[in-house]
Structures are given as C-alpha cells and as structure tokens.
Design a protein that fits this description.
Number of strands: 25
CATH class of the largest domain: Alpha Beta
CATH architecture of the largest domain: 3-Layer(aba) Sandwich
Oligomer: single chain
Number of helices: 21
Shape: elongated
Radius of gyration: 29 Å
Distance between the termini: 46 Å
Strand content: 15-25%
Helix content: 25-40%
C-alpha cells in the first residue's frame, strides 16, 4: 500500500463518493484506523485498542502495485518479516492484521502456522479478546481444528507444523491461503516452509506472507529472509524488546542478570548473534580450561564441596565434585569418578559415594539423579539414619530431570516451577559465561567433561517451547559426566544463599508486563476527532453485526487494492552454515 496520506487525498477528491462513504472507505483501507476504531484492548475489553508506534508501522505496510518496464501492473511487498524481541506485542500485530484482512475482504483465506499447538492457542486467544464487545460476530469460532469463519465468507485457520513428527506439515498440505502467517519462524520449521507453505504462496499470485520470530541463532530461512531481504524483495521490521514502553533500567538489569549473553542477544536485542554451535560457546569453554591435576588437589575445610551423581544402568555411575573457594568465590572441578557399567552394581555405587564422602572429601551436599537412582538414594539415606555423623540422611538431595524444580521468585515472592533439566543447563551456562568455574584442560577429550560440553546441543523444543537437549557421540549418549556437573552446580545455586547471583528463576519475560498500555499517548495520522465518526459509521454499517464487504465501494471509488500480475521473486534455499572457528 502506498503512502496512506496520499490515499486519503485521492479518496477526498473522488466526486463519485459521498462524504460518509469517503470517511468509511478511509477507515476501511487504513488497517491502523480500522483496528483502533473497531477492536478492543485485549487486556481491557471496555477500552478500544490503541496500537504502539512500532505496531502501527508493521501493520501499515501492505502490498502495493507498480508498473514495470513492459507497462504491466505488478504487486510488490508480498512478503514481510517481523524480527522482534520478546514481549513487545508481536502476536497482537499478527492477530490485528489477520482480522483486518478477513473483515474487509470477502472469502479471504488466512493461514496461521506455528511450530506448536500452544502458539495456535495463544493466537486464537488474542483474536477472541480483540473482538470482545465489538460489532464483529463470527459465524463459527472453534478450536481443534482452529477455525474462525466470518459472515462474509472469510476464514482464519491455524495449523501446527508438527515439528516433532515425521509427518511435518501434514495438516497444512492441500490448504489454500491468501495471507499466510508463519509464527516463530526461526524454530525448526524450514522444511515445512520449503515443502508446504511456499507452494501455496507460489500458486496464488496475490498471496502474502508475514514471517515472525525472535531469533534463536540458527542460520536457516528466517536468517536468510532477514539478511537477504533486498535481494529477495522482502520488507523487514526489526524491533528490540527495549521499544516497549514498559522497558526501563530495572528491566535492563534483570535481563542481564538472569540471561546468558546468548539469550540476551536473541530474546531482548532480537539479533542472530554467533552461528548456533552448541549450548556452551567454545570461546567460553576455552577460557574455563585450566592447567591442574585432580589427583593433586587437597581438601580445604574452609571451602564448600557439593557432589553431583548421575546414575545409569547402561553407562554406569558418574561422580563430579565441585569446590567453591571461600576467598575468591570461584568454582572448580575438584574430583571426578566413573564406575564403568561392567563394574556397576547398586551397592558398588553407594559404597563409592560413602567412601568419598567420609574419607576423601566431606561434602556439604550431594545432588543425585532420581531417574535411575531411586534405590541408591534410599540406601544412602538409610545409611545416614544409622550413622548420623555422616549426615547423609540430610544432605542427599534428588532431582528428576523430567520434573520441575520449585523455586521462589525473588521479585514476586511466588513459588514457580521450572523444568528441571532446562534449569540445570541454564544455571551452568551462566557460570561458564561468567568464567566463574574452572575445569582441567585434560578433560577436553571426546568423553571428558569439556568434550561433552562442546557436543551438548538443543535437539528440539517441547510443545511448551522448552529446549530438549542431546549429547551424543557416534549415536551413543555422551553426557553423563556433564549431568553430574550440572547437578553439583545446581546444588550451589539452590542451597547457598550467597550464590543468588546465579539465580535463574527470574526469567525476564515473566517479570515485565509488555502488554498494551491502558493509557498510551495517541499519535494519529488522521485527526482524532474523526475516530468517533469512524466507530459510529462502522457500527451503523453492520447493524446485524455481520462483517461488511468493502469490495463494491472500492470498485466505485476506482481503487484496486491488489493486482493480478506479480513480479517474479527468485526463491533461494538457505546455504549450509560454515563451522565456526575459535
């Protein structure tokens, strides 16, 4: 769409339209005015929606026609991308634009695609809230399948990309769409985009696409569309989380204190950062490696020691003890012990832990993997009850990788549950990036602690958006020493009051309310006095609350919103990223 002010001027000079029709048409053609005169604040349905400046900019850009050298009308700007930080109202932008297109076009088909069902639910929740207490009434509004149908024949449908299934994009195949929304585009749905979504787009010469995501560090299609936008004819809208009116100095402090540098770069700054190599950056791992021998370290009663134990009947028992210096406040791997699977028995593992604790390193806490160690944990605690001086019945703590860790949010004071494995990994990331832990350099082997950390990756994301980790070497699990390390480090964070600098309970997105403000400053391209007129006109136009069709009015005004001849855009598949060298 060209400059909206030029369009208003063109409409005002059209003698075929009455003053009322001119006002109504102006409201229809401008998505921002239509939204703010029709939709409601999703946080308070008693108030009309007021969009922020960056939301207006993103929504206002629409496909526009031009004439090529052959004198043909071509439609440009059919694809745009929203690269945005977390919690700045991205879903509101997508929902508002979808409603505007559906309500001002007859038989218009809108497809919303996201990696997981939870995102489809959120999108439909926002749509429902935007329409609450408005003149918009749907003919059909259902979930599973996600369908909104309007009286003018237009529909909004949502599909998951089935990224965890071998039948990726199966529910989308055969669908048709005039406006396609790809949400969380940077989260593993490139195959679905290439094989399912792009054929839909290419088969419809007036179809439009909006791809939206917060970067995750991949070098996939979202990265390509953003970095090669000029070559591909794509319009990019880039905003960090800091554009939100809710962002302040406290937000900045919290974000930097509770996020890794990589997370801050992706989620707040909405930047791609370094090419995604693994959970732990090689540059940090190179720094934390130190030259020292474990068998030469001496126990210091002034320091704090926590043992981490990973049990596995297939691979044996892995034990890591972390020492925290009372003077420097730094951490280091103090001891490593592995009981190979050939020698592994329940009693052997228990006896080894007891022997280390009583004779080599008196531990303040022992954190163990509950999954394969339920019997061993019971034996350790029974030993502690029979031998109270060992204190084992008090210091042995278990963590279920598949469960949740209940912690208290220091800001809200409320208890919240965090996925255990993600919590353990994130906690260790903070320590490694802060260079607060040291690991012997001879652990930089395939099966050593550093080697396992280099090979540790996010394999996929759960339906709730949490990362699922994988550490394999030639198809075999190779992360059990790392798991023991994670358990020991978590013990310091959970047990030591002076370790709060590493608390990972305050995720920035759960602390800051980035929702639409209830009393924002309005900056309208059209005099605000006309807003009431627009609202009244729209209400009168739809006395039965059926969505009106502006097609006939557009034809009467001689305005053609979309041309049928489309400029050819070469679609380029992403190149395989090169391995990072450090």
């Amino acid at each position: 769409m060209g400059d909206i002010n030029d369009l208003y001027e063109e409409i005002s000079k059209d003698e075929k339209l009455s003053d009322r029709e001119k006002q109504e048409l102006s409201a229809i053609l401008d998505p921002v005015v239509w939204a703010e005169t029709t939709l409601r604040n999703p946080e308070d349905s008693s108030e009309y929606l007021t969009l922020r400046k960056y939301q207006k900019n993103a929504i206002s850009f629409q496909p526009y026609t031009t004439v090529n050298e052959e004198g043909e009308s071509v439609l440009l700007g059919r694809i745009k991308v929203y690269r945005m930080g977390r919690r700045i109202g991205k879903t509101v932008i997508l929902a508002v634009e979808a409603l505007w297109k559906a309500c001002t076009n007859s038989n218009y088909r809108i497809l919303y695609i996201a990696p997981f069902e939870s995102q489809c639910n959120l999108f439909f929740n926002i749509i429902e809230k935007l329409m609450t207490n408005t003149v918009l009434i749907t003919k059909r509004f259902v979930r599973k399948p996600f369908i909104v149908q309007f009286h003018n024949g237009s529909t909004i449908m949502a599909h998951t990309a089935n990224v965890r299934s071998s039948r990726k994009g199966s529910s989308i195949r055969g669908a048709e769409g005039d406006h396609i929304i790809i949400d969380e585009m940077d989260h593993g749905i490139d195959e679905v985009i290439n094989e399912v979504i792009m054929p839909i787009y290419m088969g419809n010469d007036i179809a439009t696409i909006v791809g939206s995501s917060t970067p995750c560090g991949r070098r996939g299609l979202f990265y390509l569309w953003c970095t090669e936008k000029n070559k591909l004819g794509i319009e990019e809208f880039y905003y960090t989380s800091k554009v939100s009116p809710k962002w302040n100095n406290q937000s900045e402090v919290l974000a930097k204190a509770t996020m890794t540098l990589e997370q801050y770069t992706h989620e707040i700054l909405a930047q791609f950062g370094e090419a995604l190599e693994g959970v732990y950056r090689n540059v940090d791992l190179d720094f934390v490696m130190q030259t020292y021998e474990l068998n030469k370290l001496k126990y210091n009663k002034n320091n704090v020691y926590i043992m981490g134990v990973d049990w596995n009947e297939k691979y044996g028992v892995c034990i890591i003890i972390i020492e925290r210096s009372a003077k420097a406040g730094l951490y280091r791997v103090f001891k490593k012990e592995v009981i190979e699977k050939q020698k592994f028995t329940q009693l052997e593992g228990v006896n080894k832990i007891i022997n280390i604790h009583l004779n080599e390193c008196l531990c303040d806490f022992i954190y163990v993997d509950k999954g394969y160690g339920a019997t061993q944990i019971e034996l350790l605690q029974k030993y502690g009850l029979k031998n109270p001086s060992s204190n084992l019945h008090k210091i042995v703590k278990d963590i279920d990788y598949g469960g949740k860790i209940i912690i208290r949010d220091p800001v809200s004071g409320l208890e919240v549950g965090k996925p255990a494995k993600a919590y353990l990994v994130h906690n260790s990331q903070l320590m490694v990036e802060a260079h607060k832990i040291f690991i012997p350099e001879d652990e930089d082997t395939e099966h050593g602690v550093i080697g396992q950390m280099r090979n540790f990756r996010v394999s996929k994301f759960s339906s709730s958006g949490h990362p699922v980790y994988e550490g394999k070497l030639r198809g075999e699990d190779n992360d059990h020493l790392l798991n023991a390390l994670l358990l020991a480090l978590a013990g310091f964070t959970l047990e030591m009051s002076d370790a709060t600098e590493y608390q990972t309970t305050n995720h920035i997105t759960s602390l800051i309310n980035f929702n639409i403000p209830k009393s924002p400053t309005r900056t309208m391209e059209i005099p605000s006095a006309n807003v009431a007129k627009f609202r009244q006109l729209i209400t009168q136009t739809m006395p039965n609350a059926k969505v009106f069709n502006s097609t006939s009015m557009l034809r009467k005004a001689g305005v053609h919103r979309q041309a049928r001849t489309v400029a050819k855009i070469d679609y380029i598949k992403p190149q395989r990223p090169k391995r990072s060298n450090f």
